[in-house]
Amino acid sequence: MPITCISFDLDGTLAEKQFDKIIWNTEIPKLYADTHGVDLETAKKEVYSEYYKALYIEYVKNWTDIDMWFKRLALHDWQSLMERMRHHIFVYSDVIPVLEMLSKEYRLVIVSDSEPKFLNMKLDALGLRKYFKEIVSAPAELRVLKKDPSAFRLVMERLGAEPHNILHVGDDIVSDFSVPVASGAKAILIDRSGEKRGENIIHSLRELPEKVEKMSK
Ligand SMILES: [Mg+2]
Questions:
Q1: 3, 175, 200, 213: which has the fewest C-beta neighbours closer than 10 Å?
Q2: Integer Cα distance of 98 and 211 in angstroms
Q3: Run of H or E including 136
């Protein structure tokens, strides 16, 4: 069955992950310490335990929404924090040449668990927007994260794509591989550490065009 649409995860697949790590693990605790007059160790403990509580106890749906977090932690001005950290947004070196090539033949889309404020800033900073016909923020548009069993059915509905025509590429074994495959789509796992091996695993995006061609037959 021919592949006509390739959907990509963003973080860890196209974009390096340090921007998020710096914002959530370093900068928000620092800001919390300054704002509330506590030392950094205390701030980290309090902030991390709020993250944990929101995710595992309260099941807060929009827990990647920085605006929600700034309100919850009584902080101010997430916009300027994101602007200051913008220089930490990087694309992996194998991305542009491969997108350049594949975008000529396939409909490329992004399906990300990233929330729109992060997603938009990254796509603008990386200059990636022009390669993609559609950009889907799962939490904002599908109201589920990609690991939810219904996620890829919703993605395909949203894109108007048939499962056998869509290939998803990403770095998370559950949300980028098992879930799309269980929904009838094709999937490729990118393992940038180079440790995992298998027919549907690649270590660099440079291996993707050949794989797509083979899988399309
Ligand atoms: Mg990822």
A1: 213
A2: 12
A3: strand 134-137
Q: What is the pTM of this model?
A: 0.90
Q: Measured between alpha carbons, how far is 163 from 179 in angstroms, rounded to an integer?
A: 12
**Span from the CA of 77 to the centroid of ligand 1 (angstroms):** 27
DSSP class of residue 104 equals T
Tell me the CA–centroid distance for residue 131 and ligand 1, in Å. Answer: 18
Strands 186-190 and 5-8: unpaired
Report the DSSP beta bridge partners of residue 187. Answer: 168
CA of 39 to the centre of ligand 1 (A): 32
Distance CA 81, CA 169 (A): 30
CA 181 to chain centroid: 18
The residue extents of the domains of the chain are 5-16+90-216, 18-87
The CA 38 to ligand 1 mean position distance, Å, reads 33
Task: List per-residue pLDDT tens for the chain, 217 residues long.
Answer: 799 999 999 999 999 999 999 999 999 999 999 999 999 999 999 999 999 999 899 988 788 899 999 999 999 999 999 999 999 999 999 999 999 999 999 999 999 999 999 999 999 999 999 999 999 999 889 888 899 999 999 999 999 999 999 999 999 999 999 999 999 999 999 999 999 999 999 999 999 999 999 988 7
CATH class of 5-16+90-216: alpha beta
CA–centroid distance, residue 201 to ligand 1 (Å)? 14
